[in-house]
Protein 1
Amino acid sequence: MMEQPTLRVTLRTPDDWHIHLRDGAALPRTVGDAARQFRRAIVMPNLVPPVVDAEDALSYQLRIHGQIPEGNPFEPLMVIYLTDRTSAEIVRQAHQAGVVAAKLYPAGATTNSDSGVTDIANIYPALEAMQACGMKLLLHGEVTTADIDIFDRERVFIEKILSRVVDDFPQLKIVLEHITTAQAAEFVGQARDGVGATITAHHLLYNRNHMLVGGVRPHYYCLPILKRSYHQSALIEAATSGSPKFFLGTDSAPHAQHKKETACGCAGCYTAFSAIELYAEVFDRVGKLDKLEGFASEFGPDFYGLPRNTDTITLEKRPWALPDSLAMGEEQLIPLAAGEVLSWRLV
Ligand SMILES: NC(=O)N[C@@H](CC(=O)O)C(=O)O
Ligand SMILES: [Zn+2]
Ligand SMILES: [Zn+2]
């Protein structure tokens, strides 16, 4: 019998424009996984306590650097966490220290967001300073008031908050992170220049049925929460459209197994172990593998005003099963799609 030649695709090395690496004992796992496939990563600042200024960001960056495998050129790009007390001066100092962005977590919106902003008006001076120095604004785009249903929180954030910030700061570069709805895809698609969005692999691969039909599956629980399949289709459409407004951000977020599989489980999916392979799965499924390179490796650096990577990675069509569990320090971590078979594998 003749062996079929193995299908391969070679891509410019991708970057991850939204990842949670955490700290301490988690770092060898998270940094190692990210550095295996990505050259750069935008590192989320929601540590406890959060990364709020230049000093915090630089010391966190050093701890990450300490875990990059020998000879690997991985580059963590640092972000500060906006609080009610973030001043214009804090922004300017962070910018001078090489911090590329500041992250807005509405207070209480997601994991480790208790120090987040309680009213966007409190950070208008910080946003002015960011606009002036070119620092990007990254948004966890969900309102948090109890009267708004969890499935509507992103849509209401866009209507009530985002549309205002986009207009009030016409030169500010804004990324609506981990979008999950057709409304978000549409808003960003039609927004002025300088407004973009990241999309996770899990919001492309799954909808809320995957999380809730036949039993509740805590490893699919993340924020913003998985939505209807109609929204999933809109996200796939946006990610594979070739529009430079949409780019890769895994939102990979490690929570130990015992913190997910419990009565009140944490929000976040761990995808860093196989992120580019998960994205390849989706793009291939809809016949758009040719659009993966723009989404994964070009539109992100273009948006951030950074050079595109010049080296490449290769994916091969060779089915493999994800491990059931990974070690993270002394703890166990269940990767998203644990035990499932993926078609593409990083060579
Ligand atoms: N996405 C999540 O569900 N969790 C993230 C926080 C975030 O990005 O909202 C985390 O830090 O665990
Ligand atoms: Zn978030
Ligand atoms: Zn996140």
Note: Residues 18, 20, 44, 251, 253 surround zinc ion (ligand 3) (CB under 6 Å).
Protein 2
Amino acid sequence: MAAPSEPEVIRDKAAMRAWSRRRRAEGKTVAFVPTMGFLHEGHLSLVSTAAAACAGPAAIVVSIYVNPSQFAPTEDLATYPSDFAGDLRKLAATGVVAAVFSPPDLYFRGSARRPADASGNGAISCLDEAGGDGHETWIRVEQLEKGLCGSSRPVFFRGVATVVAKLFNIVEPDIAVFGKKDYQQWRIICRMVRDLDFAIEIIGSEIVREADGLAMSSRNVHLSCGERQKALSISRSLANAKTAALSGNNHSQQIKDQIVQALTEAGGRVDYVEIVEQESLVPVERIDRPSVICVAAWFGKVRLIDNIEIQVPS
Ligand SMILES: Nc1ncnc2c1ncn2[C@@H]1O[C@H](COP(=O)(O)OP(=O)(O)OP(=O)(O)O)[C@@H](O)[C@H]1O
Ligand SMILES: CC(C)(CO)[C@@H](O)C(=O)[O-]
Ligand code: BAL
């Protein structure tokens, strides 16, 4: 039976788990795409990847949940874009999404608030450290979460790993799909799944770009026209760097310097430019093994990330 074109909206954890178990009992592969909503073609490509990955009958679940615990208090939780009705229309139009899991809240809120201590521990995420009998269990992927986005977003990967583990325990998927646009996130989830023996196959899906090269991202909506034009320097400089690396200029420092210069000249503020091994995310001095160039830069008030994988011919 084909999936209904109108996805079922599920808001309750127990109902979600029961739904998945019923689908599996019917012999379906449960494929899961976690998102924070305000969907674009990048998200819809994850749905296509999920559908293609299921050999037989499939039940595709998309979650829409803006996870507070991955945002530091200084970050943009309050202004994160949303359009639930629009998201549902887009998912219905795919014709393959069977359920949308959109819980109001996934955390146990404590009865008492614990103030931040002198070292800053305590109120360090927008979950505001529930305190008392509230949520206090966190997953850390200790090495992979250091560096890249982990350096400037101190609670980000703790929040992502924890909420993804919670979502996995609720949705109980066979397969889950993550975008390579969030490269470090994808690698961290793969590592968590391996280390904690989740029986879930993780699939990394290719970056979807606008026609002019800008990586699609929900936050792009906050770019002014001018900022958006300037932000094209990210994908352009990454593409130039890849061409240079494949034609013999494989010195990481030189390549990083060129990218920093291009972004700065365009008016961006660089958070980081790093060249790392694809799986370990350890920095490389030369691009002489499968590597990925990762960039985060601010254009106006918007922090954008992008990357490009490089497989050197052997
Ligand atoms: N352009 C893209 N190509 C492929 N996957 C993407 C793209 N944009 C987002 N994704 C993936 O979609 C999933 C949900 O991401 P999310 O809802 O945070 O969207 P986003 O566009 O990345 O938003 P943000 O503006 O927060 O970066 C993640 O696995 C992410 O990697
Ligand atoms: C994986 C995720 C849904 C966890 O909140 C989020 O980080 C995202 O959308 O990439
Ligand atoms: N796409 C990752 C979600 C975030 O930046 O918070």
Note: Helices lie at 13-25, 41-53, 84-94, 149-152, 156-171, 183-195, 225-246, 252-265.
Protein 3
Amino acid sequence: MTVTPERHAALAAYLRKHEGRDQLRFITCGSVDDGKSTLLGRLLYDTKLLFDDQLAALARDSKRHGTQGDALDFALLLDGLEAEREQGITIDVAYRFFGTDKRGFIVADCPGHEQYTRNMATGASTAELAVVLVDARKGVLTQTRRHTWICALFGIRHVVLAVNKMDLVDYDRSRFEAIAAEYTALAYALGIADATCIPLSALCGDNVTARSPRMPWYEGPSLLEHLETVRVERATGGTGFRLPVQWVNRPDHGFRGYAGTVAQGRIAVGAEIVALPGGRRSRIARIIGPDGDLEVAAAGQAVTLTLADELDIARGDVIADAAHPPQVADQFACRLLWMGDAPLLPGRPYWLKIGARTVGAQVTEIRHKIDVNTQAELAAKRLELNEVAQCNLSLDQPVAFEPYAENRTLGGFILIDRQSNATVAGGTLDFALRRAGNVHWQHIDVDKAARATIKGQKPCCLWFTGLSGSGKSTIANLVERRLHALGYHTYILDGDNVRHGLNRDLGFTDEDRVENIRRVAEVAKLMVDAGLIVLVSFISPFRSERRMARALFGEGEFLEVFVDTPLAECERRDPKGLYRRARAGQISNFTGIDSPYEAPEAPEITLRTVEAEAGALAQRLVERVLSFEPAHGREA
Ligand SMILES: Nc1ncnc2c1ncn2[C@@H]1O[C@H](COP(=O)(O)OS(=O)(=O)O)[C@@H](OP(=O)(O)O)[C@H]1O
Ligand SMILES: Nc1ncnc2c1ncn2[C@@H]1O[C@H](COP(=O)(O)OP(=O)(O)O)[C@@H](O)[C@H]1O
């Protein structure tokens, strides 16, 4: 079953038709084989609200591939979708919708495999309730705990534990009660106020839509009865109006509209607004809905606003009630669910997307990670796939936000890998850290240009990267000697040396190397600011951090010098005997052996040390530097 444009259109039509009707948005989550597909299939079938085309397909597939004889195999209803996922077709979450005369339902179906945590996070961030499945024979598993944790993280306050396959434990009451007790304690520890446990058999239909005579000891509602009647609070935090601007609509010079979905509150024509983070104010001139002008816009509505004044508002800005604006900050305490295959490394730059805004961001500190089985808080220097943690976050620019507990749209974010563009984390902003709030940039009259002029040179950073023993230090040293002899003001920052002082606390794990490069890049930036020609000679093995270093400098100030020497040659030279020791297992995390080196993709200069002598290579570099130095009578 594919999620075709027709089905999306059908969903949109359904939502329109049932606007205003009581609706429950929920997600289903469970481990593989817990029976999630069968349960959902049964629920859809028994409420007789399957689309006809789906039913026909189900009857056909059941005969062909089903495991239930001539009966309908409900699992097949959903497994088509699973199969597409196996083939790597990108479907975040499949939304299904059905209803009874009491309520409409929108279900985000999230597959159970570990690697689909990402999809589950997407589903959870818009759901009001979660149905968590466990197999009665297996009880609460690590996966169950993880899913429940994710539900809690993303603000779901109502959970149903569907204890499935009760038929396979002879509808045993004590088995159910033991699982229910364990799960209720877990949910309570995670702050989930309402955890309802229901014993059922999706396959046999027990307690799914109607109470089962096979479990007379169970006095609670069937799953459907519960879903129809559970009361969920819909309040989304405060009442102040907020609209994250999705796009700026400028068909001609006469019209400038700001389009987006109202994330909170309501606003009327004439009301005073503030555009954040900039802080400029104006009044609402027009509110334009899909069918024409409106007097008022409220949470959930997609509208275009025009303002009385021409403000410089860009995509990603937030238009807010001027009397009750949200906070603006660039440092946060947050909770994070790491979903990247490569680990999270503090200090590494990622993109952060919040509302309609994307900004550069770094996790500055992992305060602790959380063991989903025990809730224990553990020290961590990195986060691996599916780990959750409390972190501090620093953004390159301030953003308007609300704590996640108050508004999911303005408090929820994702992190995106800058190289692959993959979503690597989902998170929630808890509160702003004010540490940077009172630190202002101090203006200094003597600037970089003045310092450079007095030295008669153009400051720059020559960033050498390459394997240990490739020749970075040798060549950098020759370059500096030559420039120095010509009267230039230079400085070499060498990895070995800086690691004796400023970076004495760092080792050679990936996370320590990230921090090592971050610090030395900042130091190099200060030295360039002081007017110097700086030569940085660090292995700097990761593209991501070299890119971060480059971003600190102005146009033409940063030259990446790739000292390109094959590993075998470095090993043959082995000037410090380190390769020999690494091969003997005496040094771990050695670059090129058991720690990666990511060669530059577009360095300004590549020096192949097996093809030319160090002196000749150094001379090439000196000439390159001199080519953009101001002429002042020095001779090369
Ligand atoms: N495990 C491991 N891996 C790589 N290198 C090691 C290691 N242990 C010690 N050394 C010595 O440390 C020097 C590299 O430090 P850097 O600060 O340049 O490394 S990095 O940029 O953080 O990767 C490097 O110096 P160079 O040979 O000049 O590159 C080595 O002498
Ligand atoms: N063309 C060359 N350029 C630089 N170094 C070379 C070259 N050919 C041989 N070498 C030798 O390779 C070794 C490089 O060591 P070093 O400069 O300390 O490398 P790194 O700083 O990259 O670890 C030195 O012993 C140097 O004499």
Note: Residues 1-5, 50-56, 66-92 have pLDDT under 50 and may be disordered.
Protein 4
Amino acid sequence: MRPLIAGNWKMHGSLLDSAALAEAVSAGAATAGPAAELLVCPPFPYIQPTAAALLGKGVAVGGQDCHAAAKGAHTGDVAAVMLRDVGATHVILGHSERRADHGETDAAVRAKAEAALAAGLTPIVCVGESEAQRLAGKAEAVVTGQLDGSLPEGFAAAGGVVAYEPVWAIGTGRTPTEAEIAAIHAAIRANLTAQFGAPGGGLRILYGGSVKPGNAKAILALPHVDGALVGGASLVAADFLAIAAAAG
Ligand SMILES: O=C[C@H](O)COP(=O)(O)O
């Protein structure tokens, strides 16, 4: 399975910064990790110029969220079809920051994923436990529960992507042990196969949470880790490309 290295730029940078970052990533894309598929997810206003700059350069562009409706009176929201219209091919959904900041439930994430599929976007659905849930021994149950509630019918047929991001590992410099990552990814694979049959076995499962050039090789080598969702390190082209290189 071709690894996917996705950069989530979150709410960082300016128009000039995003142009420079896109340019630097595309300049190194051909040589750094040619085996990996690269994706960057800028803030909404920078998606169109980033997609235009990266067209034909081997780096795809995605959104960080979309609304569940195709259109309508939803001030401040963006429809999946609009993302598609300006050159996005993917959309991150259910990131823990959106679940926390906007109260997004599994049902809401599922509805957004349905909209993404209808618009022809590949959804990247995020799941992950809090630190308290991990300490209580509930990490696997939380993650599989989120998968049960967040993934729509048709997710596997469309090649949807799951990202496991332990909330406590995001932006903290802390990560689970390799054994802990492997255990959750195996549980996710089992859940996808149970939900979707054989096609679920072929879906990519990304790890996210403090992925850096220094730990990427070990994490990406784990079974059922099919790429990474990278936050902070994706804002530095050399680091993002080094992570891609670690994917082989
Ligand atoms: O979407 C990306 C994640 O939230 C990971 O962020 P991080 O690499 O800064 O820990």
Note: The first strand starts at residue 4 and ends at 8.
